[in-house]
Amino acid sequence: MNILHLDSGLFLEQSVSRKLSQQIVKRISGEQDQVVYRDLVNSPVPHLDAETLLAEHDPLAQTLLDELFAADVVVIGAPMYNFTIPTQLKAWLDRVLKAGVTFNYTEQGPKGLLQGKKVYLASGRGGIYSKGEAAAMDHQESYLRQALGFIGLTDVQIIRAEGVNLGEQPRQQALAAADEAIAQLA
């Protein structure tokens, strides 16, 4: 199995999403599995500009696309910053959401071209955004589901630790719940 592991948490040692994504990879991978790791903070993908968007060939985008197409499983460490994903992860998405490569426009609407891949999303959140009034402010998990689904990655499982900045007890409860969810992965 080929696993593409992406991390985008800014706080390298304290990052909840990094911790969870590492645990997921450890849980689902075996000796024979190939893991490609891309740290989008330490080795950022430059933000998209007009020249890059219109270029006939973008070697970096091709590398990112090759990694994505080769993967059977994608593990994404994605914290919520200001109600959405880090810009480093958005820059990666801007390179892999590519018309004619990862999706096509059809008469029936857009069609994702990546099929049969499993995605694990390691989601870290300081507050609680999965329910209640704050759910309307979730532009992190909802955005990732939409963007990934647009290119055909619809088998997305979210491992979430939220409320980690609400005090020590809520933090420990959130981490324990995420650890338990990871332990249940096949």
UniProtKB/TrEMBL annotation:
Question: Assembly and interactions?
Answer: Homodimer.
Q: Specify the protein name.
A: FMN dependent NADH:quinone oxidoreductase
E.C. numbers: 1.6.5.-, 1.7.1.17
Q: Which family does it belong to?
A: Belongs to the azoreductase type 1 family.
For whether the record's keyword set contains Flavoprotein, the answer is yes
- Recall the GO molecular function terms of this protein's record: electron transfer activity; FMN binding; oxidoreductase activity, acting on NAD(P)H as acceptor; oxidoreductase activity, acting on NAD(P)H, quinone or similar compound as acceptor
* Coiled coil feature spans: none
Q: Which keywords belong to this entry?
A: Flavoprotein, FMN, NAD, Oxidoreductase
The record's gene field reads azoR
InterPro entries per record: Flavodoxin_fold (IPR003680), Flavoprotein-like_sf (IPR029039), FMN-dep_NADH:Q_OxRdtase_AzoR1 (IPR050104), NADH:quinone_OxRdtase_FMN_depd (IPR023048)
- Residues in Flavodoxin-like fold domain copies: 1-184
- Transmembrane ranges, per UniProt, are none
- Source domain of life: Bacteria
Reaction(s) this enzyme catalyzes, per UniProt: 2 a quinone + NADH + H(+) = 2 a 1,4-benzosemiquinone + NAD(+); N,N-dimethyl-1,4-phenylenediamine + anthranilate + 2 NAD(+) = 2-(4-dimethylaminophenyl)diazenylbenzoate + 2 NADH + 2 H(+)
Q: What's the stated role of this polypeptide? A: Also exhibits azoreductase activity. Catalyzes the reductive cleavage of the azo bond in aromatic azo compounds to the corresponding amines.
Q: Which organism is it from?
A: Pseudidiomarina halophila
Q: Which residues are recorded as binding FMN? A: S15, V16, S17, M80, Y81, N82, F83
Describe cofactor binding as the record notes it.
Answer: Binds 1 FMN per subunit.
The cofactors it requires, by name, are: FMN
